[in-house]
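Annotated sample (chain length 329).
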Amino acid sequence: MDSSTIKHLLNNEADTNAQKIGFLLLNEFSLLAFASAIEPLRAANRQSGRPIFEWMVASPNGVSSIASNGVEVHTNTDPENLQKCRMVFVCAGVNVRGNTSKAILNLIRRLDRNGAIIGAICTGTYVMAAAGLLSGHRCTIHWENIDGLAEEFQELEITTDLFEIDGNRVTCSGGTAALDMMLNLISQSHGAQLAAEVSDQFIHDRIREPTDRQRMELRSRIGVSHPKLLAVVKTMEDNLEEPLPQTAIARQTGLSTRQLERLFRKYLNTTPTRYYLNLRLARARHLLRQTSMSILSVALACGFVSASHFSKCYRECYDRTPRAERSPD
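Output written by the structure step:
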C-alpha cells in the first residue's frame, strides 16, 4: 500500500480546516458499506471535541438514492457540489453497470481533474475503472465482483485486499472493510490514538490491515476441517476456467478417486463432479450479472466447451437460462 501521496494531501488540511469528504450514492448502493465509511467521521469529530471532518452526501438526481435493501437516503445535494470536497467516494452495490451513466463518469473525471482524491466503496471501483481512473493503480473490489472486473478491464491490477490506497486513488472492497479503511485514513491524518478511540466506540476490537483477507477461511466457509478435502476444494477453486479431471485432482492431493468420492459424500453430501460443476456455475452467474460478456464467452471462462452445454447445466442448477439471468424480472 503506497499511502504517502494521500497522507500528504490529507495532512495539508488536517491542522487547520475540517477535511471535506464527499459521498456519491448510486442507486442500489450498499447501505452497510456507506454507513461503515461515514460513521467513523462522525465519531472522530465527537472524540476530538471539534469538527475535524465535514461530509457531503450526493445522489445522481440531486434528491435521493435508494440502497440495495430498499432504504431511501435523501441527499438534496446536487452532485456538482462535490467539487467542494477534497476527497470523494463513489458508493455502489448491486447492478453497478446499470446504475452508471455517462453523466456520472464525466462527473468523476471532472472531480479528478480538479484535484480531488477519488475513492470507491464496494462496486464503486467499477465506476472508477469505467471512467479510466485506475490505469497504473492497484485497486480492489468486493470478492464477488473480482472476476467480472478482471474480465472487463483486463489491464487493471486487481488485488484481493480489504482496501487499497495507491497514490491519489482509494478503493475498498465494501461491507465492514469500509470501517477499517476509514480508520486507516483517520490514523494517517489525525493520529493512531484517535483512530483507536473511534474503533473502540464501534466495539471494533482490531483495526484490520489492508492486506487482511476479504473472505472467511475456506474451512469456515464450507464448515469442514478435513485437510485433504480442503486441499481438493482449493484446487477446484483455483482451476475453474480449465477444470482438472477428477483423477488429476486426486493425484495432486494424495488421494485415490474412491477416497475422494467418500470424502465428498461424507462431509458435503455430494459428489466431487457435482461440487466442481456448481463452483463453475456460481462463477458463471457472477459474470452474467456483472459483465457484458457474451454467453459463449462466459461459458468458456468457466470451463464449458459449448454454449449449449453451459445453458443446459445452468438451467438445471438455477431453473433459468443464462439469457434469462440477464433479463429483468
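Annotation: The chain has 15 helices and ten strands.
Annotation: The chain has a mean pLDDT of 93.
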